[in-house]
Amino acid sequence: MAITDELLGAYAAGRTQSEKHFQRARRVMAGGVGHDLRYFEPMPLCIARARGSRKWDVDGNQYIDFLMGNGAMLLGHADPEVTEAISSTAASGTHFGNDHPLQIEWAEWITRLIPSAERVRFVSSGTESSALALRLARAHTGRTKILRFEGHFHGWHDDVVHGFHPPFDADGSMGVPPQSRQNLVLIPDGDLNMVAEVLASDTGIAAVILEPTGASWGRVPLSLEFLRGLREITARHDVILIFDEVVSGFRYSPGGLQHLTGVIPDLTCLAKIVAGGMPGGVVAGRADIMQLFDITGNAQHDRHRRVLHFGTFNASPPSAAAGITVLRRIASGEPIQRANRIAEQLRHAWDEVLERNGVAGYVYGDASIFHVYFETDSGRVGRASQRRDLHTRDAKLLKGMPPQLITQYQRHLRYRGVDIMSSTGGLLSSAHTEQDVAEATAAFEATVHALTEEGLLLTMTSVTRV
Ligand code: PMP
Q1: Which of 38, 122, 153 should be mutated for ligand 1, with most atoms under 8 A from CB?
Q2: Separation of alpha carbons 78 and 444, rounded Å
Q3: 249 C-alpha vs ligand 1 centroid, how far in Å?
Q4: Cα–Cα distance measured from residue 252 to residue 340, given in angstroms and rounded to the nearest whole number
């Protein structure tokens, strides 16, 4: 019996409750899951509880978690101080629809930590954050188009849904009006000349938005020179530079990637960690842009010269309480250092697995993030004399690994009790331990063996050198 069939049988046999939940879900929930990435065969994970770096499904199976609430849980799951802040706040009312003191303290922490954040506006998710940032940029400049980069993810709304998943020129989703594409200029990242050319020739561009880590939280790394150049070119053309720091904010440093690099955007999108594991998001930025939200009492101004923004759950009290608690802890720098240290150990251990097994690929990532690239182009392997030669910044390669390889990789890891974020990568927290690294590395090595056996991986010696 193939290794996958054997594992699959054991996996399914140990998840009878998960299977029942999935069948129930399918009857009432569209797609059977709450998020496209949660879909998994034979059945999605159905999680009952989580603590620190681990989580347990409804059948009692344990997982080492590298999904970490899609990157929201920098301090780990169910941190006692955070859950206490949420429950004591909720006891006084979960939602008023009015302003309250905690949101101001939350905003003060964000403006203290994030260099570009002179003012903030709260929303409820990363998707809302990028939608609102683009509206602000258009309002401020009076222009309509948005320059985006292939592979960069900014949520699921119409303006950003195309171009994040290869093939980049295909529609991102059905149901998006064709006008959305007309408002979009989509180019590969990393090429400053191309950016300069686009901005010089197209005067209709309001903003450039990007993940400053590189696409998909650093899956496709970007150079510092590119970020610096982008800052300079956008300023020259009076185009708004928007950093989507939904993942990197409060993870790369207490002040995000912008604090680490000194490249300061005009607007910043934040979500995930900012709300401490509760729903929440933020648009932060220059006071002269953010003043477009100001209500002055002048009827003409207030009706026609400002940006409209509502949102029932903006800055809800439990989200504010969780956010404040987490940001206060992160401000010391200690949780980030801890998460980075343990992630570095994991990257090193996993890369050694590839080295030991001669696999054509490499493990990489910044801060507390890891990605794995498996080279499946025998031409590239043939031209490489060592694994280092396979390193690339080409989004078509890094985001173009065969779907079957990705699926099997995720299955083998999960069958062995390791859950990751997406593609081949994941995120760590300050709660991860050396024990997690040791157990996850054993699962990774078994995965690599299985994938090799299934003929899905190339080794450095399996290809005739050219
Ligand atoms: N931007 C980036 C960089 C993200 O990674 C995500 C979510 N993974 C979003 C925006 C969207 O955030 P949300 O899922 O909260 O809408």
Answers
A1: 153
A2: 26
A3: 12
A4: 9
323's enclosing H/E stretch is helix 317-330
- Residue 135 tokens read as 């509206």
What pLDDT, on the 0 to 100 scale, is given for residue 462? 79
Q: Is the pLDDT of residue 436 over 70?
A: yes
The amino acid at residue 69 is: G
Among 36, 129, 242, 246, the mutation site with the greatest number of ligand 1 atoms within 8 A of its Cβ is 246
Q: Which residues contact 255 (CB under 8 A, 6 or more apart)?
A: 113, 114, 115
Report pLDDT for 463. Answer: 74
Query: What is the CA(11)–ligand 1 centre distance, in A?
Result: 30
DSSP state of 32: G
Give helix then strand counts, H and E, for the chain: 19, 16
Q: DSSP letter at 239? A: P
pTM score of the predicted model = 0.97
* Ligand 1, atom 13, residue with closest C-alpha: 126
Using CB distances shorter than 6 Å, the residues near ligand 1 are: 70, 125-127, 130, 153-155, 211, 217, 244, 246-247, 271
CA of 89 to the centre of ligand 1 (A): 26
H-assigned helices in 183-280:
192-201, 215-218, 224-236, 256-261
How large is the C-alpha radius of gyration of the chain?
A: 23
Under a CB-based contact definition with an 8 Å cutoff, are residues 63 and 414 in contact? yes
Q: Which residue, among 164, 170, 281, 155, has the nearest Cα to 215 in the 3D structure? A: 164
How many Å lie between the centroid of ligand 1 and the Cα of residue 381? 34
Q: Mean pLDDT score of the chain, rounded to an integer?
A: 96
Q: CA 206, CA 268: separation in Å to the nearest integer?
A: 15
Q: Scanning the structure block, which residue is given the tokens 């056996």?
A: 453
Between β-strands 62-65 and 54-57, what pairing exists: parallel, antiparallel or unpaired?
antiparallel
pLDDT digits (tens, 9 = 90+) for 87-107: 999 999 999 999 999 999 999
Q: How far is CA 230 from CA 18, 32, 195, 264, in A?
A: 47, 42, 8, 11
**Å from CA of 155 to ligand 1 middle:** 5
